[in-house]
Design goal:
globular; Alpha-Beta Plaits; alpha/beta; Rossmann fold; four-stranded antiparallel beta sheet; single chain; six-stranded mixed beta sheet
Length: about 300
């Protein structure tokens, strides 16, 4: 089972929101979808969901177009709140699951199970508007996966959550993936994407500027960081060939370098400056790659 987006373009009049985007996400994979505000992420999600028709290109799930007939296979958590504020939590969860053809008794059982897992069973009979933003986000996530979809689209799933609840939801999403679900999610938190995903796509102004595995993205980025801890003064090394950035720290310095040869030279030269307590080559973070590709981070 796989999701295919093939050369999808979406125009609104003279404005191109998504421009020739292609990606493939296989069964059981979790794919991170990154981009600044207005980059085209939500428009792409809406094309995947069948809510918008591409101006050109196509989207398919398991080789078939996504239609109302395939909606029971898909779960969606929108970035904006999408719940009925006056409706009770349990009634709402059951209603939304029934819309996706889940039998009422099974929906009631699953709703109780998820509310218990997210430590909010006492909210079952409360109206959504009575809940905090964080707990509303929990209910919204439950609504997206209650009917056991095989494709899950999550737009900023951790928005408005404190660190404890973020970990709770991450665990639930990872368990869902282990059951075979295909998951695509967007987030402004690069650390979440780096922790959860194997593959990423980065959009900038509607165009795909990077797509593939996080490991390959880091390898192709080329630049590395070197962290050195020593009592010696390392500032003399900041003008060395291959050093692109230098930052002094309490116990040494951080260098950004262009290649492995520069790392070796740094090691040799730093050993001459005093006792070397720590020398580590660190791979670039996803945030650094994102900033390099997009220019600036709109988080």
């Amino acid at each position: 089972m796989a999701l295919h987006v093939e050369h999808a373009t979406k125009r609104f009049g003279n404005f191109t929101a998504v421009d020739d985007v292609s990606l493939q996400v296989g069964q059981g994979q979790m794919h991170g979808f990154l981009g600044a505000n207005g980059a085209g992420k939500t428009t792409t999600f809406r094309m995947i969901l069948g809510l918008l028709d591409p101006t050109s290109g196509k989207v398919s799930w398991n080789g078939k177009p996504i239609t109302y007939g395939t909606s029971p296979e898909i779960g969606y958590l929108p970035e904006e709140r999408g719940l009925y504020p006056k409706m009770k939590v349990e009634d709402q969860l059951i209603y939304l699951a029934e819309l996706r053809r889940m039998p009422r008794l099974e929906a009631k059982r699953e709703a109780a199970r998820w509310l218990e897992r997210f430590e909010v069973p006492h909210y079952a009979s409360k109206k959504v508007e009575e809940l905090s933003k964080g707990n509303q986000q929990k209910i919204q996530l439950i609504a997206s996966l209650l009917h056991k979809p095989s494709l899950l689209i999550l737009d900023e799933p951790f928005s408005g959550l404190d660190p404890v609840n973020v970990e709770m939801l991450k665990s639930a999403i990872q368990d869902f993936q282990k059951q075979g679900a295909t998951i695509v999610f967007s987030s402004h938190r690069m650390d979440h994407v780096e922790e959860l995903c194997d593959n990423i796509s980065i959009l900038d102004k509607g165009k795909m500027v990077l797509s593939g595995s996080i490991r390959d993205a880091k390898r192709s980025f080329g630049k590395q960081k070197v962290h050195i801890k020593t009592d010696g003064d390392l500032s003399a090394l900041k003008s060395m060939e291959g050093v692109e950035k230098f930052k002094k720290t309490k116990d040494g310095a951080l260098f950004q370098i262009s290649d492995d040869a520069a790392a070796q030279t740094l090691l040799n030269e730093s050993m001459k400056l005093g006792a070397l307590r720590h020398f580590a080559i660190e791979e670039p973070s996803l945030e650094e790659i994102f900033i390099a590709k997009v220019g600036k981070l709109h988080a």
